[in-house]
Amino acid sequence: MNKISCFAVAAILTTSLASCSTNEDRIPSLCESFSDYFPVGVLINRSIVRSMNDTNFIIKHYNSLTCEEEMTPAIMHPRQNRYRWRVADEVVDFAQRNNMQVRGNCLIRFDQMPDWMCFDGERITSKDSLFSRMQAHIQTIMQRYQGKVYCWDVVSNAVADDTTIILRQNTWLYQIAGDEYVEHAFRCAHEADSTALLFYNDYNLVRPDKLERTCQMLQRLIDKGVHIDGVGMQGHWSLYEPTREQLETAIARFRSMGLQVHITQLDVSLYKWEPARRTMRRREVTVYDDEKKVAQTEQYRMIFDVLRKNSDVVTNVTFWGLDDRSSWLNNYPVRGRKNFPLLFDNYRCPKPVLFKLVGDAKEEK
Question: What domains, with CATH codes, occur in the chain?
Answer without folding.
Answer: 27-272+314-322 (3.20.20.80)
